[in-house]
Amino acid sequence: MEEASTLMPEKKGQPAERQPPSRPQDQQRQRFTVPNYVWQAIIAMELLRHTAAAHPRHRVSAASLNRTIPSASSPARARASPALDDPNPDTSWAKLFDPNPDHWNWGNRTASSTSASERNSDPYAGRGIYMCGYLDVPLDYTNKSDPRIARGWPKKTERTIVINPGGPGGSGTEYAWRAAEDITERLSGGRYDVLGWDPRGVNTSQPAVSCFPHDADRDRWALAMLKHRVAAVSNKMQLDLMDAFNAARFRACWERHGDLGRFVSTAFVARDVEEIRKALGEEELTGFMVSYGTGIGQTYANMFPNSVGRLILDGTEYVRDHRLAGGFGWTALDNVTDAWHDGFLGECLKAGPEHCALAKGAEGKSLTLFELDVWVRDILGDLISYPLPAYTEKSGASLVMYSEVVAAIYQSLYNPHSWKALAQMLYELGHGNTTLAGEFLEALWEYDPTLPCATTSKKPSSEELTLMVVCSDAYDDKERSLEWWNNQWKIMTKQSWIAGDSRFFVFACQHYTTYWPKPAEVYRGDLNNTLKNPVLLVAETYDPATPLRNGRRLLGEMGENARLIAHHGYGHSSGRDRSACTDAHLKTYILDGTLPEDQETDCYADEKPYLYGVKREGGEAGSLAAVAVASGFDPVASWREHVRETRLLGPRF
């Protein structure tokens, strides 16, 4: 409902206010207005692509897992939607169809509903199928003269679980390809379809935001920009360097994408979700939103309260924080410290040296938690003054540097399944062996020079979209001086030496309004609108990005419109440190709409980090060596899988 949101004072038919990029020597903001039809033409030229209709549009792409066999008209093989300037997109889309089902993207068999004879006679029986689709939506919802075009996807089941992995910048289509089968099984016993979409500016949605022509160009500057405060020669010099680069980065975004930065706020993404619901033909939205996706979900629920169906928000943010300068960065820093001490180190000692290499200590002696923390901090501290040389076959000579290793630790806290590999790397680093560290760090780069040259240029990733969304959502908090930001950086790194620097990426917002003085719309309403159906919140005790208190704060505001599961476990969201209790509540809610009776319900993870999958005999964990041999555990392969999985959440800063 539009009245639930706060719109910028831009009236129908009046010119949009925009601002050209200022020259380095010109520190004054200059603004100009133009007639509406000219503004529309400028938008089209600056985005380089637009639809054949009279007004600019945005195209949302989606991937879905359907639980029944598609008809012969389903374009299962298509991977990219037609270009925005395609005058006949439906015709172009249809041409991509391959009628041979052997070429389609089938899911794994869930044969409980099919007989052996059916499975033998039909190789596709009991298997879902992955399909692609797209939806045209207005680039600017505040321009009421824009006609809407909606093209939906095949509808197969009574409900479609719409999913989003977060970010901002996480790809919903990649999330669907990677996790849809697990999600439909976990939440509905394989009964419902799953649809993931790329939010505006992300991945295959058009126009996609990337302010560098190639990922290698972004990687070129990463080492200098990611230098942590304690490792900088001068904090003032480092801050000035980051400030200059942030200005250059947003200038590049303006030059490549023009006014697009005005149209990527969470409020507009919520409007896109409503268009997806309409295109699906469902009266209410069924959804599973994770991390920043919970921010989309909160905004959606309060903008469209009568469209809310069975909506799960897992890894719960509190979007009021995002309205403050730097709020997206500092909201969970203390939780990172707890996850490090109680989780990564504490559970390592509990598991013992058979299961966690770091528990062996420097000289094979048992350590207290305090001693282990000091030893690891000493290992890392030495890297500040003297990085260690490393060699990998893929990259050749490299250096193991403090800022990179600490950033990798922070990323690892998102996923406790990566902890065993990380503990092995840190243990070997403490004994002078840099091989694993070199392998781990090179896995974090976007650019891969070992891949063969493509006939067409690889589309760069959408990392800058994260900045545009975060900064637009907080655009109207008062401007801050460099001194204020320097003090904020100091406070954040004091709160968390692991995450304070990485989360300081919000410093870039200093330059957002230089190019986009105001987004077309942001949501500034309350979060307690009466919903058609209550939502189910999940918040984790040791989540390094969205702490349990976020869920409790949101629950306190939403009241009877929500229930909360306090998931006692590690990692970001409940899907990593799994709990049968949590999963049972989620499935009951999605299938039957039944919520827990209490406002807050406690659930506990089924296993402990470092002991995942370890068989227990007589109450004791089995031998790590036996498990490693049986499973073929490879710390490098484990780490690379972790990096691929966490990239679903969006860019790393």
TrEMBL record:
Domain Peptidase S33 tripeptidyl aminopeptidase-like C-terminal residue range list: 515-601
Polar residues composition-biased segments: 107-118
Sequence ranges assigned to domain AB hydrolase-1 in this UniProt record: 160-344
Annotated spans, Disordered: 1-32, 59-120
Entry keyword annotation includes Hydrolase: yes
Bias kind Low complexity: ranges: 70-83
Pfam families: Abhydrolase_1, Abhydrolase_4
InterPro entries: AB_hydrolase_1, AB_hydrolase_fold, Pept_S33_TAP-like_C, Serine_prot/Carboxylest_S33
Keywords from the UniProt entry: Hydrolase
Keyword flag RNA-binding: no
Family that this chain belongs to: Belongs to the peptidase S33 family.
The protein's name: Uncharacterized protein
